[in-house]
Design brief:
The chain contains 4 helices and 5 strands, in the order αβαβαβββα. α3 packs parallel to α4.
Length: 124
């Protein structure tokens, strides 16, 4: 743990609401809560397993609209119930998804059009 504390000045990311995030915060580490633009969520806050329907969001417009709504309400739509509260300082787009770059660009453009400031959390 001492080694982790030495490198902690750079911070790290963890999926919002997960045990990893809670454990890192309990250990006094800098954590940036992360949400996924292109992944579906369960009402438990976990990601929909990739082998299940609703796991991946392939449409950039849908992903962007969902993020704009999330940023306005603090609630993420889920596949199995009512939207849930999550926190986010980081948004991830999976680079192994077809069209990932186009999706990231559209999301950035839509968020900036809504007045969202996009910046690195490194060094903060």
């Amino acid at each position: 743990m001492a080694a982790v504390h030495r490198i902690d000045r750079y911070g790290g990311s963890a999926i919002s609401g997960t045990q990893t995030e809670h454990a890192a915060r309990a250990a006094g580490l800098s954590v940036y809560s992360e949400i996924f633009a292109d992944r579906g969520y369960l009402s438990s806050g976990q990601l929909v397993p990739r082998d299940q329907a609703g796991a991946m969001i392939h449409d950039a417009g849908e992903a962007a609209a969902r993020l704009v709504s999330f940023l306005e309400t603090g609630r993420m739509p889920v596949v199995d119930g009512d939207p849930i509260e999550l926190a986010a300082q980081s948004i991830c787009v999976h680079g192994d998804s077809p069209g990932a770059l186009a999706m990231a660009l559209e999301i950035r453009d839509r968020l900036m059009a809504q007045g969202v400031q996009i910046a690195s959390f490194m060094g903060t």
